[in-house]
Every structure is written in structure tokens, then in C-alpha cells.
User: Fold these one by one.
Assistant:
Number 1:
Amino acid sequence: MTDTALCDLTAIEQRRLIGRKAISPVDLLDAHLRRIERVDPAVNAMVSVDEPLARAAAKAAEAAVLKGDKLELLHGLPVGIKDLEETKGLRTTYGSPQYADFVPDADCGMVANLRAAGAVILGKTNTPEFGAGANTINPVFGPTGNPFDPARSCAGSSGGSAVALATGMVPMASGSDLGGSLRNPAAYCGIVGFRPSPGLVPSEKRGLGWYPSSMLGPMARNVPDLAMMLAAMASDDPRDPLSRAVFGRKMVSEEEFHPLAELDPGTLRVAYTPDFGFAPTSNAVRALFADRIAQFKGIFASAGEGSPDMAGADRAFGVLRAEAFLAKHLPVYRSAPHMLGPNVIANVEEGLGYSLADMAEAHTLHTGIYRRMGAFFRDVDLIISPAMTVQPTLWTELAPREIDGKTLATYYSWLALPYGVTLSTHPAIVLPCGVDSRGLPFGIQIVGPRGGDAFLLAAAAAIERALAGIEACARPLPDLETLARAPSIHTLPGADMLAHVGKAA
């Protein structure tokens, strides 16, 4: 089987063929390594690859197949890990010069779960410094480009994972999400990203243990593949206060996610909104969304415009985000601010301006949004919105500062569509939905009911199948031949724009 045939198979089909001894995990790894060598220079998605470690894992997976051993869910599948998550023996930089040479001696919990499920950790995917910002560029590895136009942003902070998936460098990749960090790049790169309910994918690393906004999640090229990865990621971890267990017993079974239950979209009641009543959605995105909704809303039992009351979302998110940055970065800000990039500094300095009264107000607003979102779902099954307020901009612009001529309040205000949903704590998924007039991917965000992760995935899979049959709504594919001929992204103007970060003051 050719490299193209192997790399472009779904993860489920790759796993099925491994189980049947029709393909070898070693051959599968080699095909993906050659894909990385061929197209990654143009986009810079896979920033740390340890071929010897990956090859040893693939050979062990191959030996288990040949011996007839019981094979785990992800047995032999190459996986990319966002460079915010520790990988034993493989450099983890967090996109920061502080950790440019850091090699962990242990996996974080999520990575350990993936390895236990048989995954072959192929490499690390690029991210902005400490995941701050929805534009994947950092002073350690430079920018990651959009696979449909490497001069444009792939969004972030899980941008490297999204680009690696879109170009077939890996069949599955990890992401994390605070204000849309895995949903944003899914929309910009034409792949699928899922933000689960708090605690479903535990993290022992969150400094604010009861903070329900920052979550780990899976990314893939289609919903069934994503659900299979989620089944391996979902677990109980007593180190995470939000982890779902009662006296050590998991409340959620992996079997809920793979294989997905069949669901008829004709049974679903859907509300759709271009802005949740507060997001600064651009006129161009509003027009794209109206066009796509008109093309597929007929597949539902009912579909009408509507939104829960999101009053206070900007205020709540700004204060709570700043709280998280203070908890993590204040010591370095005070001792060595030159080691931090502009996005991290902006968040820390914003946080230093808030009081305890501001925190109390933010938590009160947060609670109100949660309750009003839950009440809204008494009458609908899903909410659909655009995934992003604007289409991909140039990555030399760290963040849009105005939309349709109106100045934005903060560098992250353009992320209002995903971060409003973050505050609700409801699960959300982004699906590709065709392209814009420039050929750049357009994504839609689908929000499910509280705790309804398995239901949302089943609904999203049904919607995905329907969109595939509508020409204007089908998932787009990047031109790999064009990427293979393109110059290295590091030769483009602005590639070293953050090179000063981390140097002596």
C-alpha cells in the first residue's frame, strides 16, 4: 500500500487493518514519517520527532500482532501530542525558551493513557507559548502555517495538531482548550476538534484544580476517529478534583464513545446563532454561516434562530482567564519577565489589575451563564454557531485587534464564540463545513447538553455524514503537492518575529 493510501486512511480503518495483519505498525509509522518529511517544512506542525523511540514502540506493536496478543484500542496508531503535555524521553518545551531543552522523565496522565491504549507517540505538535493565544507561533519553533495557505494562521493553541491532522502527518492528535484552543484550529484547518465536559479527560496538571475552563481533548479528521481517541483518553484520576468518579469508580464508560451509537438527525431540535448575542462576529462569517445553515438545516426535526442569554460572558472570561495566568506565571513575571512572550505578559498584567471583588463578580456571572444555558437546553437538543468570528488572517498578526472596523477590547475578544461556550461547561465540537471564497476552511461549532458528550458525538457524526453529501459543506482537503513544493515557512517574512523572547534583558 502506498504512503498516500496509508496516511489518508481513517484511524479506525488503520486500526482494523493492523488487527487483521493487513498492515504493519512499522510500515504505518514509516509512511507517516515520510509524509512529515515531505510537507512539514512548509507548515512546521511537527516540531519534535524522536524516530528511534517511535520506531521501538511500533516494532513492539508489530511483535504483539504477530504473537496474537490481545490488542488495545489504539494499537499501533501514530499519535501527535501537543507540546504542552509531557512525553517521557521526548522534548517538551511549552513553546517557551524557559523549557527549550526540557526532556521529561515521565508522561503526563493523558499521554500515559494513550500509550496504555497502544498508541505510538510519533512526536510533538507546535503551540504558542504556554498555549496563550489563538495563533500558533512561539520563540522556540517559530510559526505554524495554515495547510491551505501557509502564510495564514492555523489558529491555536492546538494549531500544530490541527495542521498535522489536515495534512495526514498523524491520524489522531491531542489538544487542549480554554477559550477554544482545540476548536479554533479545527475550524481553520478543516478537521474535527472536541471540547469535552469538565473531568471527562482528567488532568493532574491544572494548578487551579476546581477551574472548569481548561480541558484536554481529542482531535481527528472525522467524528468516529475522534470518538475512538476519546475512549482511550477518558478516565478517572484522583489527582484531578473534577475527574468523574464516585469512591474510585468511574462514572463514564469508554464504551459510550466507541463505537458511536447511530442517531437520526431528523429527530433533533436545533437552535442556531451567529453570535450568541454578544460575540463580534464579522459580516463575512455571518454571511458564510447563513449560507451553510440554509443548506443543511432541513436535515433536523426543527431548526430556528435562538440563543441563551450570555450576559456577562466577556467580563467573566477575562477575569477568570487572568486568574489562571496569575496562578501559573506570576513568579516568572516578577523575576524574569523577559522570559515571557507578549500574550502571557498581557494576561498577567490584566490579572494584576483585578480585585477580590472582581473575582467574586466573575464567578457569579459564570454561574449565571451556566444556569441559563442549562435552562435553554430544555427546549433544544443542540446549538449551532460559527466556530470563529473571522476567517484566517496572516500569522504575522498575533491577533485581530478590530473586526469590520470596530476595535476589540482585548487581544482575545475575537474568540468570543468559543469562550462563551467554555463558560457554560457544556461539551462542544467543531466540524468543517466547506470553504470561503479564498478556499480557506470554514467551521461550525455544535454545542450539546450538559454532560451529553456521547450524545453530542453521535449527533455530530450524523451531521458530518449529511454535510459530506452537500458539496458546499463537505470537508475540504489541502493540496499536499503544493505544500511539498512550497518554501520552508522559516524563510517567510516575520518567521523570527518572537526571536527576542527569552533573551537576556
Number 2:
Amino acid sequence: MKPETKFTHKGRPKPSLSTPVNPSLTRASTLLFDKAEDLYRNDITTYGRHGTEVHLALCELFNELESGVGTVLFPSGLASCTYPILAHVKSGDHILLTDSCYGPIRSFCENQLQKFGVETEIYDPRIGSEIETLIRPNTSVIILESPGSLTLEIQDVPAIVAIAKAHKITTIIDNTWSAGLVYKPLEMGVDISCHAATKYFGGHSDLLFGAAICRTKNHYERVKRTAKLIGNSASADDAYQVLRGFRTVTARFDKQAATALELAVWLQDHPRIKTVLHPALSSHPDHGLWKRDFSGAAPLFSFVVNNMSPKDVLAFVNAHELFGIGYSYGGYESLIIHCDPQLKRQFDPEFGGPLIRYACGLEDVADLKSDITQAFNAIS
């Protein structure tokens, strides 16, 4: 069954007489019982923080998305990454973190985890099987992100996972870029796949949400228990919105990804652009890995500009009319950011110019090309 069919029919009530097509939205903190004996049961929901019907329906869809055995929902994409890490580390542990990771994850590992006696070591995202040289007896977690959300390196995930399994190390990947639609890391043996559902599944830039999909029951129970102990709670209203976004995510994702690829191909020949970083292009250094492991591309890519001063970069970004200036991606609107202020890397890529990122929305691609053209003309 194709994803678009699954996402239309899964996570819905069984039809009877006048049945709504979606599960009911329940807003609740206190849940009432007619028997005191039921208050302390572990096989039912006893408090609103532990989820409602709509949360269960949404978990069913995330499990379908990546063939997971269990999903834990979070109030943000960042939380969907930090809680699984917390669930698998203890004082004295050593973890490995890709240099291409989402910036707040790096900050969490290097600052917050350090307070608890967990050491974070940064590794080159293109290290592949050579990651074995970094493993220590106390290495507990390897954190991946493929591709990197700014610099778009593709990691050799199967090679890294094989090493991790041999050493009984948990692997956690940020899989937000692909929406789980064109990349299936759990099928490659990754233990936990994390998503900022804020993006494609929210789809309208008006909510924050996250999900951690687990490959095994053991990983799922550990993440679920950690989330419960720390007080995690995802809003029923937001869960309902993400569930609704699931119904149309494939159509939106496919159109936005096609727009991004067309723009990337078109920009390759622009005289003001040095390099376009889109893994579906044969010029991308990791194109072979992308072709091997991915079934498609996503609406997000970056490019390096030629002969542009910091002042000109700001003027170029500001000149866009259809591309909004803002973080995140996966919503209906196109966005642009200049990346260099946040490129604090240990293994710095030699780009040879300022880095800019486009996130493509649902606008007509010809209109977006016109917007880009007038933005370049504005600084000529």
C-alpha cells in the first residue's frame, strides 16, 4: 500500500453509524473513573498528560511512516531528539555527534549533557565506517543527521550502523529533511528516527511538534519512560493538527521537492553562484550515497555565492519578495536564510563563499525564479 493511501485511511475510527472521518479531539487533564481500583492500572490512560485518542491515532501513522514498533510524541522537534538521547546515556558515558547536526542538538549535548558527566565528541559526517576508530568502551550513543540541515552532507548510515551494532551502541538520527517519505533509516538498522513534525506534517507554519519513532520495543519503552518521568506532554490540539497534516503530506512534499530540484538545476548555471548543494545533483559530493539510500529528494537545499560581501549577502536576502526570511521549513511558504553566522563547525567545509539556504513552498516555480532573479539584480 502506497504512503498516500495509508495516510488517508490509517488512524481513523472504524465506521459505524454517522462516524466522523477523524478521531475526536479530547482536551483533558483529569480523567474520571467509576472505580477506585482503576486509578493505579498500568494498562490504561489514567491522566491527560499520557495521551488521548488523537495521540494514539497519530502514533499509529508515525509507526506506519517508518515501520516502527512505537512512537513517542513531543511538543517540539528539538524535544524529539533530546529525550531519546537522555533515555540512553548516563554519567560517565561518551557519545558521538555528527558535525552537521542541527545547532540546538549540539548545544544540548555540549552544554547540558556535560553537566551530567556525559562527554560529546564531534565527528566528520563523511566518516563512514572509520567511525570505529572513535569508539570507546563507554560510547553509548551515535547521533546522525542525513543530510545535514544546512550543509547537506549525506552520511553512510548503513556503514555507521554496522559498526554501532557490533559494539552494542544505540543510533539516533534526525530524519526531518526526508519526512520519512524518501528515506527509511529504521530499515537500515537505526534504532530511533526523530522528526520535527513542526515542518512537513504541520505543513502550515503554525504549530510546534515532534515525534521519535523506535525500531525495537526496548528503545521505545526507554524513551517513553524517560519522557513520562521528565513530564513530557504534547498538546491534543497540536496532535490533531499534525494528524490532519499527515493526510496531505505526500502531495505537498512531492510538489515542494520538485520545485526545489528545478530551482537547484536552474541555479547551477547562475554566474553569481559557485556551488549548489542538493544531493540529487550529480555534482554533489555524496550523490552516490543519496542515489543508493534515498528514493527521492526534499524541498530544502543550499548554495554558495560568488564574490558577495557580508553586506551584499544581507541585501540579497532582504531583496526577496516571495521567499520569507525565517527559520524552519516544510510549510506552505518558501523561506530563505543566510547560514554563515550559525556555521560553527569542527570539520569546516571549504565552501569558498557565503552559504544560503532555500526552503521551497507551494508557490509556482516560475514565480520563485522571477523572485530570485530580481533579488540578484537588486545587488548587481
Number 3:
Amino acid sequence: MKHKLFKSTVAVFAGWFLLVSTTYADAAPGDVIVTLGEDLNANQQSQLLDEMGVSEDEALVVYVTNEEEHQYLGNYISASRIGSNALSSSKITLLEEGSGLNVTTNRIDWVSEEMYTNALATAGVEDAEIYVTAPFNVSGTAALTGLIKAYEISTDEVIPEEQKQVANEEMVKTAELGENVGVEKATELMTRIKEEIAEGNVETEEDLRDLIDHIARELGIELTDEEKNGLVSLFQRMQNLNIDWSQVQEQIGSIRENLTEFLESEEGQGLIDSILGFFEALIDAVRSWFSSAFISPFTK
């Protein structure tokens, strides 16, 4: 099932790239850009446009091809998973400078809203309200590629290929980690690592490994050696890019707000209670061990 989910989403990001790139230089806050997968049938196009609340004559509409999907996502997902149809779509509303990124999804069941935000900020995308959707449930991987492409063309700037690759790798790695430890924990781990890098607290590979270990322990995440090495490699590549880290922090502000809401929710409180319960049980076990270890033999 998961393999089938990939095939319809690559179009979103490819479309975003294309659409933003063609008009962003002259665009103003409030302008709306829509991307549609080229392989949507007429009924599906109408359905998604109605869902996004726009018509083709009200916004710039860019059609994304399956070839573009393979071009921008082929390094991280197999061709069979990308599939042969471009179906994913999106709506982008440009915001005032300093507004940050705000992502909402519908029928996207692998890549979370926070994962999109994190990866887009890494790629250098700024200040936009983004809505990602599809005619049926899909993984959501395609959207990132489309948006970056659109942003690049719209600003008439070339985003370095390595920066695009890192953004796509970040999204995929976070989603894969989320399958094992949960979406919130995976997103929190990635966000906190980026925040520490932005603060200038990571200078060496050893610093980075210690940081990943420290944050993972605090979140109750057990990383395999493969996962840890993959994160080290990713963030080292990220550090070597010419990224404006203060801008990244500004753009991902919504992630911190969403994670705070989660921790304050019933589910989040349940997670905190379970962690506290674990440590209380551990302390009780240690106390019990010490008590039994120091009982005088004369009391028997």
C-alpha cells in the first residue's frame, strides 16, 4: 500500500517550484498560486480546485508532469514508488515578509505538516501559506520538490542543487524515522538539532553526535547506528551549505507552536506521564535494590 502512495504526490512540489518560479518576482502578499498534477482527470481537477476554493481564472495554475516528479525526487525514492502519474496538487498563498511558513495538508498520510515546514525552510522557501492535497490518500513526498522548483523560478534565483537535495533528504529521513518513533518525536528531534546548529553550538562531528544522542535520550528515542549515522551525514551536509540560519528559525516558528500544542494536549500529556512513570519505576527499583543490599544479616 505504501508503495502506491508515493506515485501521486511528487507533482505537488514539482508544481510549486514551477509555479512560484514563473511569477514570484512580481508577486505580492495575498497572491495565490495553484499546482495541479498533469494526470488528474477533469473531475479530479474540478474537485481539488473546489476544495482549495479557487478557479483557474482566479489564480496562476501550473501543471506538473510525472517527468518532473522523477527529476526532483529520484535520488531518494525508487522509480517504482514515484509511479507514472502526476496527481498531487497544492495551493500557495504568499504572505507578508516575516510571516513564516504555515503548511496544512489533506489526504497526506506519510509526510506531516511540520516535516514540510522544516524541509522547505532548509531549502530557503519563505513566508507562505501552503495547502497540500490529492484526490485520494498519498504519501506526500512530491510536494516538496514542486514547491522548491516553483520558488526558484519565481524569485529568478538558483537554489544550489545540494541545498535542494538536503531538503528532500531531510523530509524523507524524518518521515522514515517517524514510522519508528512517532511523527511528533521525529519532528521534535530534527527541529531541536537545527535550532542548536542555528545557535552555533555545533562545531565538530563529535559535537553533532553528542547533540543527537542528548536530544534523542531526552525524547526517549533509541536510534540505531544506521539512523544516527544517517542524521550525522545529513546535518553535516546542511552545515556546509550557505544557509541563513536565523531565517530558518523564523520560518519554522510554526513547528514549535504545533509541538507545544501537542505537548499540552491529552495525547502529549499521556506521553509525558508515561516517561515520568518510567523514571519513577526506575527510582523505586533502585531504592528496592539498595534496601535489600544493605539489610543486616542479623535481622534474618
Number 4:
Amino acid sequence: MSLLTVEHLTIRFGGLVAVDDVSFTAEDGRITAIIGPNGAGKTTVFNCLTGFYKPDVGRMCLHRDGKDFLLERMDGFRIAGQAGVARTFQNIRLFPRMTVLENLLVAQHNTLHRASFHTLAGLLGLSRYRDAEKAAIARAAEWLERVGLRHLADDEAGSLPYGDQRRLEIARAMCTNPRLLCLDEPAAGLNPKESADLAALIRDIKAREKIAVLLIEHDMSVVMEISDHIVVLDHGAKIAEGNPAQIRVDPAVIAAYLGTDEEDAA
């Protein structure tokens, strides 16, 4: 069974159909890329999956631990906390004045809040809260090690180079222990070496965490290198899907990215 099943997803903004009857699946341990030209509806799909938008039509079902979570019926904070969907953003959204470590601890706020009995155990310094706090710090340290930022744990997040901030945002998402990780253009603005390092990190997450990864990306070298399955959107509609070799030679995909003779003449 697929971890995520999206069926007939449709969302309109006034007279504009941003996503038009899109269906696809995402499986555990696999990377599914959603690609397409600017304005194709890719980020709108992510915004539906994570609760920022409610679709006009469609079903988004995440299957986890024997339960079905209908994402279109859930509030955004429940999608993250209960269904286990985490995301990064095209524009980095770290807490720039907090330290690198603090950004990862904030991501574990819900776990710490429950352990504190809604702050009481924290105020009293009870062992339940101290143990949870130690576990949160250990998890944060583990992810900082995996993304190569442990030596910068006490630096302000906003002081990091751009590529390090990208990796920190992924580490923060992983600290929520997600089952579905949605990465919105994680290679945007990176140089070739940084893109290669990012691709290696995403492959490592896939191999070791056995979660589903949804990827929006314009860097086709990254997409073709790491994706198991690719869904192609154009003007809100799905025009193709398949493995990288199939997508690379698909006429509809080539036309969407390069244009047709008729479009060029117009």
C-alpha cells in the first residue's frame, strides 16, 4: 500500500484552476518528484497536503500505522503532529535569531510540551520532562551531525551561509519524526557542489529513514539523479508520470518545458 494517495485533487482561485484533477501516489522508501514549469501548480499541491489550502475537490489519504488520515479534513497542525507530514519551503523559514540547536528544539515543541504536562513538569523540574529534554537535545545533535552542522550548534541560524541554512531546514523537519517529507525546491540558489551534497543528504534520508519523500525541484540534474518516480504538471494538470528515463524522453514533458513550434510562432 502506498503511504500517500492523492485522488482528483482540484483547487480553484476565483476563475483560475490552479490544480486540475491531479492524482498520484507516494511510497515509503521512495522519492517522488513533482516537476513542471513555473506556475504549473506544484507548490499549490504542497500547500494542500500540509493544510495551508483546502481543495475544492479531491481526496488526500495518508496511510500510517494501520490508520487512514484524510488530510483534506484536518487542520494543518494536526497534519504535522498526527499524520506526520513535514515540509520545507521555497523561501527559507528558519528562526534567524535563534541558535542552530534551538531551531531543532523548537521543532520538537509538541513532544516536550506533552512531557511537561503543559509546562507544570518543566517548571518543577520533574524527571519525566528532564528525560524528554535530553532526548530532544540528542535527536537535534544527531541531525546536526548528519547535515554537517554540529560544530555550528551555538551560532545564530541567520548567520549561516545559504547552503547551510537549506540543510538546517531539512534537519529541523526531520526532528519532527515525519513519515512524509515534502521538500519545496531545496536546491534553489545552491551552487553545483552544494546541490550534489544536498542530493546525497536526501538519498541518505531515503535509505536510512525509510520514509516517503516528495520533492519539488527545478534543478533537473538533482531530480533525475535521486528520484524514483516523477509526476509532471503543466497549467495545473498532470501531463506525465514515470521513472526518470521515461520522463526524460516524454514528448509532452519536452513540449511543456521547451514549447512547441506553434507556441514559438505565436
